[in-house]
């Protein structure tokens, strides 16, 4: 069993910058394919509007999850970062909907 879970928010180093990401891979995928987690980058600049592909959040950090900014991170990169907490169910539902639109899975 992995220590990562869908909806967790982590602060990690990406391209030399500290960035927050939310894990969007399913818990089943995280367990079945250990070593990598699919994540959505969180914009903390307060510049991302509330749209169908940007989801504002206040907890565990202030920002907006951006569905068009998806990356796969190794477990080592995540573990080198800091877990900030998890998003609530309503936010995760909006993230899921944004991913379906972005990836044409509707």
Q: What does it look like?
A:
The protein is of the alpha+beta class and 106 residues long. Helices cover 25% and strands 41% of the residues. It is built from three helices and six strands. Strands 4-5-3-2-1-6 form a six-stranded antiparallel sheet. A hairpin with a 5-residue loop joins strand 4 (54-57) and strand 5 (63-74). It is globular. GO terms for molecular function: DNA binding. This is Growth inhibitor PemK.
Query: How much is the average pLDDT?
Result: 92
Radius of gyration: 13 Å
Please work out how many helical segments DSSP would assign.
Answer: 3
> How would you characterize the largest beta sheet?
6 strands, antiparallel
In total, the number of domains comes to: 1
CATH architecture: Roll
Proportion in helices: 10-25%
Strand order of the largest sheet: 4-5-3-2-1-6
Unreliable spans are none
Order of helices and strands: EEHEEEHEH
What do we call the CATH topology? SH3 type barrels
* Strand residue content: 35-45%
InterPro entries: PemK-like, Plasmid_toxin/cell-grow_inhib
Family: Belongs to the PemK/MazF family.
Pfam family, one: PemK_toxin
Protein name: Growth inhibitor PemK
């Amino acid at each position: 069993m992995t220590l990562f879970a869908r909806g967790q928010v982590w602060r990690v180093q990406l391209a030399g910058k500290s960035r927050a990401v939310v894990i969007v891979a399913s818990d089943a995928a995280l367990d079945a394919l250990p070593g990598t987690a699919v994540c959505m980058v969180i914009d903390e600049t307060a510049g991302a509007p509330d749209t169908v592909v940007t989801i504002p959040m206040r907890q565990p950090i202030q920002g907006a999850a951006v569905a068009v900014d998806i990356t796969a991170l190794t477990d080592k990169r995540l573990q080198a970062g800091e877990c900030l907490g998890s998003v609530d169910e309503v936010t995760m539902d909006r993230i899921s909907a944004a991913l379906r639109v972005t990836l044409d899975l509707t």
